[in-house]
Amino acid sequence: MHAIIDIANKVFNPIINLGAAPIMLIVLTLLALLFGVKFSRALEGGIRLAIALTAIGDIINMLTSAYQKPLNDFVKSTGIHLSITDVGWAPLGTITWGSPYTLFFLVIMILLNIVMLVLNKTNTLDVDIFDIWHISFTALMAMYFGANLFVATLLILYIGALKIVNSDLMKPTFNDLLDAPDENPMTTTHLNYMMNPIIMVFDKIFDKLFPWLDKYDFDSAELNKKIGFWGSHFAIGVYLGIFIGLLSKQDVQTILTLAFTGGTCLELFSLIGSWFIAAVEPLSQGISDFATKRFQGRTFNIGLDWPFIAGRAEVWAAANVLAPIMLVEALVLPGNHIMPLGSIIAMGVTPALLVVTRGKIIRMIVIGAIEMPIFLWAGTLSAPFITSVAKNVGAFPAGVGSGTQIAEATKEGPIEQFLAYLVGKASEGQIEFIIYAALALIAYGLIFWWYAKQMKKRNAEYAAAKESN
Amino acid sequence: MIKILAACGAGVNSSHQIKDALEREMGDRGYDVKCDAVMVKDITEDMISKYDIFTPIAKTDLGFTPSIPVVDAGPILYRIAAMAKPVYDKVEETIKSNGLK
C-alpha cells in the first residue's frame, strides 16, 4: 500500500506543484478526450483555460491593488464598512473552473440529467456546460464551510434536480416571451431562475395589493436607448471609480486612476470571460454529442444559457434602473460589506424577474429592489470563500493585504449560497446549524413545490388559450 | 469581407458560440466572414449600420428596426448539426440575395 502511495506521490506531486493553471490544462484536456473530442481541440481548450486563469489573476491584481487603499479610506471617511471588491461574474466563473472539483461536479450533473431523462422526470437536455460553474460554486462553498465531498454532492443533486424541473416549468413562458411556436426547444437550466419561487411570492402579493401599478409600465426599449453608453462596462467602471474616489477623499490624480483602472478591469473581465468560455467549448460540444447520440429519436427541450431572452428590453431596463437603487441599498444595508462594482448591472437578477412577471417592468423594478438585499448579503457571506478559492488556484495577488476580499454583488443563486453555508456549518456537527440547515432545505423544497403548482396553472392557461384559438 | 453582428446577454457566451460557428461554417462554404459578439444592450442604430447581417439568438427588441437583414441564429446553440444547418443556409441565402462579399 505504501509503495502505491509513494508511486502516486512521485507521479502526481510534481504536477500538483506546477500550480492550478497547468493542472487544469491537463485535466480539461484529458476529460475532453474522454468525451471523444479530437486531441488538438481538447488541447486547445486546455491551453485556453490555463491562459484565462492566468489572465484573470492579473486583472484581479490590478483592480484590488488600485482599490484596496481607497476602499479602506472609504470605510474610515464614511463609517460605512464596504471593503469587499465586487469583481463581477467573470473572475468567479474562471476561478471556479480553476478548481478540479468543478469537473467532478460537472460529471455528477450530466449523470443527473441523463437519469432524469431516462426516467422521464424531465424533457430538458442541458447543453449549457459552461454554467455548471454555478452549481460547482455552491458545492465548493458548502465544502469551504465544513461539508465533505459526499454532503456537498448531495446538496447539488437536490438543487440540480429542481433546477432541471424548473427548466420544463418555464418552457411555455419562454415561448410566450419570445413569441415562439411550441416547436421552439429553447429553455434554460440556469441557476438564476431558482429565484423564481421567491419572486413569485412577491408577484402574488403585487396581484392582490398593487395591480394598479402595472398601468405605469413604460417603454423599456426607449429607456435603454436613452441610457446609451452609460450602461456599458467601461462607463460603469469610470463613474464608480470617481464615486469611490470622491467619498474616500482621494486626490484628483488617484480619483482618475481609480476611474480608468475600474473601466479597464471591467472591460477586460468580460473579454477574458470569453476566452474561458472558448476554453470549455470543445468539452461542451463533446458532451452534447455524447448525450444526443444516446437519446437519438427523442425530441428534447434544450437547456441553454439564459441570454436567449436578452432580446427582451425589460431585462436591461430593469437592470439599468436597479443599478443606482442597488448602490444606495448597499450603502445603508446592515450587514452588507460589498461595494457594487463589477456586477452593478444586475444580469443575474433581472431574467428571473422577467419570467415571473412576464415583462411587467414596474413589478420587475419593485420586486428587484426588495430582493436585492438577499444578493448583497449572500455576496458578503461568500467573500471569504471566493477569496480563498482564488488564492488556491493562484488567481489572487500575493502582495495584497490579508484583509482584502473579492466577491460578486449579484451572484446568481443567493438562496443556494445560504443553503451551502448552513449545510457546511451543519456538517461540523453544531446542533443549531443542523436544525437550521434541515429547516432551510425543507423550506426551499416547499416553496419550490408551491411555485411549481403556480407554473403548472400558468402552463395550463397557455395550453387552453392555444386550444381556443 | 462580410461583417456579421451576433448578440447575447453578456456578449461572451452564446454570442461567441454563434460567432465561432458562423465564421467556421461560412469559411468552409467559401465566404470571407468576420463576426463580432456584443451585448444586446450595447447595440445602437449606428453600430448595426456598420454590419451586413444581424444574427440574434431569438426575437430581439432593440428599440429600433434594424436596417440590415436579420437571421435568427438561436438553433446554432442547440449543438446539433442538423438543427444548425438551416441557420447557415439562411445566412448563405442572405449573402447571395444581397450580393454581399
From TrEMBL, chain A:
Residues 12-450 form the PTS EIIC type-2 domain. Pfam families: EIIC-GAT (PF03611). Keywords: Cell membrane, Membrane, Phosphotransferase system, Sugar transport, Transmembrane, Transmembrane helix, Transport. The chain crosses the membrane at residues 15-37, 49-67, 101-120, 132-161, 227-248, 255-278, 338-357, 364-386, 433-452. It is a multi-pass membrane protein. It is found in: Cell membrane. Its main location: membrane. This is PTS glucitol transporter subunit IIA. The lineage of its organism: Bacteria, Bacillati, Bacillota, Bacilli, Lactobacillales.
UniProtKB/TrEMBL annotation, chain B:
The keyword Transferase applies. This is PTS fructose transporter subunit IIB. Keywords: Transferase. Residues 3-58 form the Phosphotransferase system EIIB component type 2/3 domain. InterPro entries: PTS_EIIB-like_sf, PTS_EIIB_2/3. It comes from Ligilactobacillus pabuli.
